[in-house]
Amino acid sequence: MSLTIPRTTVTSWRELPGSVWLLVGARAVNRLGAFTLPFLTVTLVAEQGASVAQAGYLMAAFGLATIPSRLAGGRLSDRWGPRATIVVGLCATAAAQLLVAGSRTLPQAAVAVVLLGLAFEVYEPPSQSLVADATAPEDRPIAFGLLFAALSAAGMGAGLLAALLAGFDLRWLFVADAVSCLLCAAVIARWLPVARPSSASVAGPARPWRDRRLLLLLGLGTLLATLYLQVTITLPLTVTGRGLPPSVIGLLLTASAVTVVIAQPLAAARALRRLDDPVAMAVAFVVLGIGLAGTGLATSIPAYVASTVVWSIGDLLLMGRAYTLVAAIAPEGGSGAYLAVYGTSWGFAAILAPVLGTQLLASTGPLVTWLLMAMASLGLAAAYLAARGPLGVPRGPDLGRD
After folding, report:
1. For 202-236, what is each residue's pLDDT tens digit?
2. 266 Cβ contact list (under 8 Å, min separation 6)
3. Alpha carbons 184 and 151: distance in angstroms, whole number
4. Which of 14, 87, 261, 263 lies 20 to 30 Å from 146 when distance is taken between CA atoms?
5. 193: which DSSP letter?
6. What's the Cα-to-Cα distance from 10 to each of 1, 80, 385, rounded to whole Å?
7. Which ranges carry the Major facilitator superfamily (MFS) profile domain (predicted)?
8. Is residue 93 within 8 Å of 123, Cβ to Cβ?
């Protein structure tokens, strides 16, 4: 399914279609309340009496459940349309959050956690599909970058709300998250334009797992996500291991979110828009690599902040282009399924990243670990350039034009 919205070339994020802005605003409200995941393990131990090992198993079960959740969201998006799928996914997530809050025994909590995982990613593929379908191919980096920036900015507020509510009762975190999901669903249901089936979606479903181009992007995307997740895994250990207070971690994450918001105009810069997606991603990986190397070399708070700003700019450029490239190879009416399959890269990375990052840090130390990650970033830059041929990417900015 696709939105029947006229698509014109825009010169900045301010000119994006109203449906994209509506989605971004609604998802920002949802993200503002989505602060429960870091507290889920604590809640299982403190409120449900789970051991640390049991909580770890349940979190692993949650992570595994998010993979079919995302795939289901992509398939439903192409069949039902983005609006219906987003609303269903948000309502299901809210129901699961309330089940977690209302659980009185560990078995009840275990069921609720798995159900939460099955619902948690349903609305992601249709959100991304809507952005892809409502914008012209050359405008998608701007639109995806805006969505990424809005979620990052809302994440800062989410941390503050979590700090306030956690002082009362951890269960209230899940209630507040459920309320934010329902508010987002209400906005989407009321004001998002209705999609109608395209001729391609009526003819038959997309088969993303048979597309070698998508599988290539899935492999590269898993490496990208594994590198990206080191920020939440290895960075805190590096900062505290070098004798800095834990509050510095919050400062760096805030600096990253602020950078992503302020640096939005870069996504619309004419020089970058003239580059095709693999070349633009290669440039972004170089920027990311410089920032990662700077993190390894940093010994003071200003140095950490400076390197954070650099790798955050790389993140912004990468997130906009990665999803744009996937949407470009998707058949008409199949963007939801393609984006869902690509999104499983984050599930795979969630398994690889903790082991890889902690083992590297323990065996080589922070300096070598971050320099190796910087080298990996440069390697990914070369890999995306080499993938231009297999992906069939033409030179210039016309990638993905209908």
Report:
1. 444 568 888 999 999 999 999 999 998 888 778 88
2. 272, 313, 316, 317
3. 13
4. 87
5. P
6. 23, 28, 26
7. 1-391
8. yes
| Rg of the chain over all Cα atoms, to the nearest angstrom | 20
Tokens read off for 132: 């892809």
SS3 of 395, please? coil
Q: Which of 116-120, 352-356, 370-374 has the highest mean pLDDT?
A: 370-374
DSSP 245: -
Q: Which of 252, 10, 267, 29 is nearest to 150 (CA)?
A: 29
pLDDT digit string, tens, across residues 81-91: 888 999 999 99
Structure token pair of residue 346? 């984050």
Q: What is the pTM of this model?
A: 0.76
Cβ–Cβ under 8 Å, residues 94 and 182: yes
**pLDDT tens, 164-210?**
666 667 788 788 888 888 988 898 888 877 655 444 444 445 688 88
Closest C-alpha among 377, 232, 240, 369 to residue 314: 377
Rounded Cα distance, 157 and 34, in Å: 10
Q: Domains in the chain and their CATH numbers?
A: 17-136+158-194 (1.20.1250.20), 208-391 (1.20.1250.20)
